[in-house]
Design brief:
Blueprint lengths: L10 E12 L5 E13 L4 E5 L6 H9 L6 E7 L5 E3 L5 H10 L1 E5 L10 H11 L4 H14 L16 H13 L5 E5 L7 H16 L3 E5 L3 H7 L2 E6 L2 E7 H4 L11
Parallel strand pairs: 3-8, 3-9, 6-7, 7-8
Antiparallel strand pairs: 1-2, 1-4, 4-5, 9-10
Keywords: ATP-binding, Nucleotide-binding
Organism: freshwater metagenome
Protein name: Phosphonate metabolism protein PhnL
Length: 257
Amino acid sequence: MSTAIATKPILDVRDLTKSFVLHNIDGRTVTGLHNVSFTVEPGQHLALAGTSGAGKSTLLRAIYRTYAPSSGEVWFRLSDDSVVNLAQLSDPEIVALRGRQIGYVSQFLRAQPRRSVLDLVIRAGVSRGMNVADARELGILSLRRLNIGEQLWDVHTSVLSGGEKQRVNIAAGLISPPRLLLLDEPVSALDPENRESAIQLISELTHQGVAVLAVFHDLDAIARLATQIVVMQKGRIINNGPVDQILPLLHPGDVQP
């Protein structure tokens, strides 16, 4: 378990709200996030807990700007120590930050039929500002650390198994550590050996100062990785505190999908 560094937050979320209009159901509005506020500091791993429908994945997507927030602020500290409100940036500005300073790893890999495993990981490194040679070297290292053998490097991602896709997704997301890493069930489809490799990689990132905001559906991963836990229910934060205070209050059903 890593130790958070007492310093300026990398992420400062203030009163974040996200509503959805259900156009196919009478145009009614459903609120997925209600005035959510918290911070994440460098080297801190904040785990999001809560049952299905609590708003965990919606929160990650609103921060990453897959979803446009309805209201509130999402302040992100850049590498030059200035801050920007992600909720108000233009799409091109968000894309630029995603490429270099904000990473997102989900349980799903978007299959690209004409893209090989190694090529996908290399392209992820290049998008973070690396040259092709360095991206290839680090990409190969990431793939090996996640037990993706060389016989798969030239295989198209569309033919991989679920667990293989998830490991490639992790390798691409972690090839060049971002300042902020968003994780949405990144190890859910992995067998015990590969899950252990992925957890070790994530743990190393927090020790390197990466701020991590993650959703895991098992208490063991939270216990091993998190420094802070935010518990959500129906789009609201109902508890927030250090892992040693919050974890004993949780049950397996509190983190199930």
